[in-house]
Fold this protein.
Amino acid sequence: AVGNLHIPGYEMPWEDKTFLYPSTMAPPLQVLIDCSNGASDYGNKFGEPLICGWTRNLGHRLQTGERFEWVKPIMMSGG
């Protein structure tokens, strides 16, 4: 689960472009790409992505103006 992905060329109307991330945090799309790359580096040496299944993203602003977003991704693996 990660925040809004903001995939270039694939804009979703509910994704808030005003959400900024501190320099110590990777944006959600980069997190998923790096997870896939890291899993393929660790799991096999052919560079095939090992992530399959589903991902969720959520990020919106509440009526109070508070930002609500998933920012702590969890990666599960099996062997």
Summary: Residues 22 and 71 are 12 Å apart (CA to CA). Strands lie at 59-61, 67-69. DSSP finds one helix and two strands in the chain. The first helix runs from residue 28 to 43.
